[in-house]
Amino acid sequence: MSENTVAAISTPLGTGGISVIRISGDAAISIADKCFRAFSGTKLCDLNGYEALYGEIYDQSGVIDDCVALVFKAPKSYTGENVVEISTHGGVLVTKKALRAIFDCGATPAMAGEFTKRAFLNGKLDLLKAESVIGIINAKNESALKINRKARNGGLSKDIDGICEKMLETAASIAAYSDFPDEDIENLNIENFSSLITECESKINKLIENFDNGKAILEGIDCAIVGKPNVGKSTIMNLFSRSEKSIVTDIAGTTRDIIENTVNVNGITLNLADTAGIRNTEDTVEKAGVQRAIQRQNDAQMVLAVFDNSSPLDSDDKKVLCSLDRERSIVVLNKSDLKCKLDKSVFDGFLTVQISAKYENGIEDLAEKIKTVALKNPLSENDTLLITERQRETAVRAQKALKEAKEALFAGVTVDAVGVCLDDAISALLELTGKKVTEEVCNQIFERFCIGK
Ligand code: GDP
């Protein structure tokens, strides 16, 4: 338990229906009793946990607002400590004054992520669950929410704990083998150790392999729409955005700067960028736009390269085609409602889709292809995913240590050395869940939270 009692506004500071101020620590209830009085006359300290009182919050100058005070008693609260949540009306001034009154009665300001950090330190959640809380708050799409909810409910922790347990068993067997190498004990042999290590290794490999897929789902993919002028880039942008963000005209060279929008396509978040049409031009402003388009294309994780199906390939199209990287590009043959005048064989080897953006034909096919490029390895419903770079980095350390353990096993090094490598792998997994973590790492994680969480 922490010694001091902290408080912060847990809802976004702005005008709204209500604001919630959270107080956590040993003295949370007694502090709240000093600045809150219930209309019934009951004191908060006389409540059981999960009970609320309606009353008013006040300071030396008088009543600030009427509000509801909800009491949670340790250990049955988010932080595992005594917690009072005070819901005032959602005005900026009212909320700030109420918080100041709580500070005046003895609470200190909570740091970013302090409530969740306390929950972690009090054993209410492990690090994987704590990190999923930020993920839930920041989720940009249904899939991201689902992945983080699964981690919040312990899905990821269970998988990591399972691997860790297997490693601990293996380490114990190796220790026993090293103590009695000449005895013929069932399962205590090099082959069995090797298969146990391989089993753990393949589970960790899978988690690492899936990380990029998870990242694509969680954070969205930077996707540039490129092509010469008038092929329909802005129409495609607007179709996905369902708005008139980009100007659609039949005058070539209309989009001169980059227009951005974040959209969801089949559960994938795309950070779309509609770029200036790529062509040779003497116009200074348009030239700058073309330069930016090329830059954006180079930086993008995915490229939708648009061509006009109704006109033969010209030198500007060829320039676009030559600049494409097959791995991350989708060739979009637009205006399929018009007569085809394009030699499609030039796109052999590219992932290609035929659409009419104007009449919204072929869009599902394009959406499917976007998903294919976004998720290099298709995910299954049951896959658990690592959700932060920290988690990936720690898993990579475990992977490396397991590889060394196997190499040591086959190199005929003493089994003690294998045990040491296994211990390193176990340490990494314990750090992943937070069972063994330095204060510095812990602080780094919770600093990424917002104040009040
Ligand atoms: P951009 O310069 O590449 O952004 O092209 P725009 O999206 O501004 O479109 C240029 C012109 O092509 C406009 O007149 C659009 O209405 C038209 N256009 C876009 N998509 C299609 C399509 O699928 N079929 C037809 N027939 N016209 C289209």
Structure explained in plain terms:
The strands form two sheets. Strands 3-4-5-6-2-1-7 form a seven-stranded mixed beta sheet, covered by helices on one side. α6 packs antiparallel against α7. The protein has 15 helices and 13 strands. The chain has 453 residues and is α/β, with parallel strands linked by helices. The two termini are 17 Å apart. β4 and β5 (62-72) form a beta hairpin. Residues 227, 229-235, 248-250, 254-255, 277, 334-335, 337-338, 356-358 line the site of guanosine-5'-diphosphate.
Strand and helix layout:
Elements (H helix, E strand, L loop, with lengths): L5 E4 L6 E9 L3 H8 E3 L12 E9 L2 E11 L10 E8 L1 H13 L3 E2 L4 H8 L5 H12 L3 H11 L2 H25 L10 H20 L1 H9 L1 E6 L6 H9 L17 E7 L2 E7 L9 H16 L2 E7 L6 H8 L6 E6 L16 E4 L8 H12 L14 H22 L4 H19 L5 H9 L6
Parallel strand pairs: 1-7, 8-10, 8-11, 11-12, 12-13
Antiparallel strand pairs: 1-2, 2-6, 3-4, 4-5, 5-6, 9-10
Bound molecules: guanosine-5'-diphosphate.
Question: Can you describe this structure in just a few lines?
Answer:
The chain has helices at 28-35, 92-104, 114-121, 127-138, 142-152, 155-179, 190-209, 211-219, 233-241, 284-299, 315-322, 363-374, 389-410, 415-433, 439-447, and strands at residues 6-9, 16-24, 36-38, 51-59, 62-72, 83-90, 108-109, 221-226, 259-265, 268-274, 302-308, 329-334, 351-354. It is of the alpha/beta class and 453 residues long. Strand 4 (51-59) and strand 5 form a beta hairpin.
